[in-house]
User: What shape does this take?
Amino acid sequence: MRPFIQNPTLRSYQVHRDLAILLVTVAVCAVPFLNYPFHMDDNFYMDMARNARVRPLYPNDTPYVFEGHYLPDMGSHSHPPFQTYFLTLLQHLFGEGAGREWIYHMCSLVFPILGVLAFYFVAARFLERPLWPSMVLACCPLFLVMQHTLMTDVPTLAFWLAAIACFLWATDRRSTALYAASSLFQFAAMFASYQSIALTPLLGAYQLRKKAGLKGWCFLLPAPLAMAAWFVMNYFHYHRWLLMDTMGYIQSRHAGTLAMLWTKLLAILEYQGWLVLFPFFFLYVFGRGLRGRFLALAALAGVYICQLRIPDYRFTDKVIFVVGLAAGVFVIWRMAAFFVDSFREGEKALGVVPPEAQFLGLWYFGVLAYCVLLFTEGSARYILPLVPPVMICFFRQLEVSEVSEYRLPSRPLLNSAMLASGSLVLSLAWGMALSHADQEFARIYPRAAYEFSRITNGMTSYYVGEWGFRYYFSRSGARQLPVDESRVRGGSFLALPKLALPYDIPADLRTMTMPLQALTYDLATPLRTLDWQTKAGFYSTGWGLIPFSFSRRTLEEVEIRQVSFLVERLPWSRVVSSASVRPWPGYLLIQEKNPLAILAKPGTSIIYPWTEPEPLVLEMACGVGPDAYTEGSDSTFTFSIRELGSGGKILSNFSRTLKPGMRKEDRAWFHVRFLLQGREQGVESLELVYQSTDKDSVGTGAFAEGFLRRPE
Amino acid sequence: MKYIAEFFMNLPDLYKGNHQDTKSTKNTKRKLHSNHSVLGALGVLVVSLLVLALTGGCIAKSPIQGKQHPSFLDLTSRFFAPGARLKGSGTGTFDPHYPVVRKGERRDTMLLIAPVTAKAEIGGIEGSYFLEALCTQVFNTGDGIQMDIYLTERGERRKVYGRYFDAGRRAEDRDWVPVSVPLILGKARDSQVEIEASAGPQGDLTSDWLALSSVRLVPGKEAR
Assistant: This one.
């Protein structure tokens, strides 16, 4: 084993071969997932990219409603607009539309490729065989899942790694071109994610420890200066410092409370335990000290924390939690030991010289610190930048073990070579399984949007959710529920998901809606990356503390409701009534059913102005309340539905007379399906009439439901 | 921690290097020193710019700085409803903080689910005032809800205001309805405002949720 006190060298033929292998690996891993629907926050960047074509300098300057909250602009969004510009370019070149996702994913492959190739050069500074960790990064479950989205995480990691690779090699070779390239990548990383500002102190510390001279410092300045200039430019446009509102948002989510910090720390341990490599390898390589006692101790602590923190989780979820926690703790423990060793005189952490080992330690713990302290919640994607130092440390450990294994009389079964290749194969399989599960999850929303559009059939419709749900429902013609809910007219459809960040519909509007249908979506795979029932929280700790779970239950349910035309339009209707009580919206219990209805007293006529241009089908249930009759009474109650033309001329009429006192079947709801012509056919109003032969009757009659649909 | 602390304490030494200086290296170091001064200055500039970028927002007028001293008495926290359930969704419930949205405007409200009466002590206040609030019926269903406001002074209870909210049938009630009730207060110790929510004329309590926001006493002309 080379002790790494000399400068590493790369042979060009070896580099070319390795890079080709890596390129093929990334491409092969990506091909099955090119048709990934737009997922999670992809939708936000696509929206901003559309706006960037109108306002190229300030792409986030557009009013936006997120989770039901209106924001006058998105300038203070948690990410600067690198990814937005990238998507703007793609939108400009290829347009948007059904079946074009693969173009976006294919073009976005440039980031995982850059990331993996750059990591090869970073790893070459620390390892004898940089190909292995680079391949494992390409197959890393977290990296695999995230590379199929359009969010900023993989681009940030790619630029981060490219900036570091260039800087490390530039320091070694005193190469101005590499320094300049690093500077450019630093800026790209910062322009993709604010947290990449951490690159400046990280590379600065390396520069300081390597005593590399003035040139390196000069190339550390342009990126933060450019970001500062960008902030100043935006200040003059938005009249505020963008990050102030961003920080206000973070504070509003109570990101700094002790409970939240603890949650985030646990989540990071879980994510790095399960999603960097298949956890067995961390447990075996990092946790086999003290003849397995260390492992037993970690498992015990895991069980204790599990019972303390998540006693309500299912047994399988608890097992996932404990395994992830133990693996995560070993990772952090090993990284800490590595970091501490790098400061000890005369000791070299895993044979890596102190400045480089300290650099890796600072990298890992710096990212860990900002993930815990700065972010609003835990999310697997946030920890992507800490994957590379962990991989380097893991493979360095294997290289060290390999040397000691040669001295043994017989090599163990699980030797270093076996562990290296095993980690690659199992992590790839695990990553593919997770990616497949996530892809299935993402595919729900295009399907749901299609089914919803078939139900609404061109009628006004709204959606109340985010992520891919928002993107695909929007593309199918539905609109986001307006902030001013009073603008929603009767007859409009609403789609409410269970999982895709549904937000509260104001109570006044909700009371006027009627449930129409529920679309449910099950996955073929039992693996879940996000689940509201089984606490899988790959994308956010808001759902749970484990990065995945197993379930056979329905993953998503989209509830479809319709705003009752009869109730919403009642204030604008004309009422002619001999009764003292005007009709009112409410509920009438008949045979254990009490749907939303217009309730009226006998002798009431309600005339609704009709504005629909095209024919619609009215599906209604009518019924007489139990207060209207007594057993054996011969009072009759008549319900009429009429279409009126100009001058009140009756164009069509439906009537039904009930004798609930005499006929038992008349005590139930009766259903009406009535074709209403549009204004183009001369219809000006819709009249509902409720009459009784008993002039003294005060019995309540109900015009319930009143669904409106386009005729098939 | 010890090692980390040592690392940072030793940084200057590490940067200088531990070897003996020769003449040539001294010259080089002098050059480097001047270069380092420039670097230091640039570093300070960058740090200042970043600090300015991150904290500059403090210069902007904050909403709190811009807020004027209130010239009204906020009654929101004074209301209580003896005998009523706190929170929940059943009849006879009083919730001092319940968010309600009307026409896109979300407000923190005092929620009264009929039949219920909420009271606020306003003893010791004298002069001409207006009891102001923004009120709304929470739902657009039901036969409406009756709101009555009573003023009790020196044991005498009198109705000072009444309004029927009927969001199901009246378009104007599907909004925040400003209510302003003139009150002449006689500095009585037992002065009390009562807001009573009750069923509409049909006696139906379904959906009878009344929300009041920004309930306050504003001085009338004379008092001002």
The longest helix of chain A spans residues 416-456. Chain A touches chain B through 52 residues (CB under 8 Å).
